[in-house]
Specification:
This protein is mostly helical. The chain contains 4 helices and 2 strands.
Length: 145
């Protein structure tokens, strides 16, 4: 005979429906890709900002902050380790296009603009480090009933 009253078994937490979960993950991936494009455009616009005639490196700082935030968001929204590539690939593509000269001779990021070069290096290193951290991270512990 037990003196402890019987407890009802705890109900497992409600899991989202698979279709809804997939739709949310796809939407999160689309947002991550669009945010990667927006981040690259913003950084390219900020690469030429000057104060008193001198270039300032604000775009490199934005590249680092945006790379960390977008990598984290993509991983959390999509739920896979490779999700860091979703914002990184369009970012890299836009940086590559920006460094090519058009037929008219226009160039968004030139070799003599130290801020543009620092922005590309800082952004690339940020995405690389965040991707490396995701690959080496231990798998999440599932606490399903």
């Amino acid at each position: 005979m037990s003196v402890v009253p019987e407890q009802e078994p705890a109900t497992p937490p409600a899991r989202p429906r698979p279709a809804l979960d997939l739709a949310l993950r796809v939407a999160g991936g689309v947002v991550a890709v669009l945010a990667g494009v927006l981040s690259a455009v913003l950084e390219l616009l900020l690469a030429t900002v000057r104060i008193g005639g001198q270039l300032i490196g604000v775009s490199a700082l934005v590249a680092i902050g945006a790379g960390i935030a977008l990598s984290w968001f993509a991983h959390e929204a999509v739920g896979t380790r490779w999700a860091v590539a979703l914002p990184a690939v369009p970012w890299f593509a836009l940086m590559a296009v920006a460094s090519l000269r058009t037929t008219e001779g226009d160039l968004l990021v030139s070799g003599d603009n130290w801020v543009g070069l620092a922005m590309i290096v800082a952004g690339a290193m940020t995405f690389a480090v965040m991707g490396f951290r995701q690959v080496l991270a231990p798998p999440p512990v599932r606490r399903d009933g």
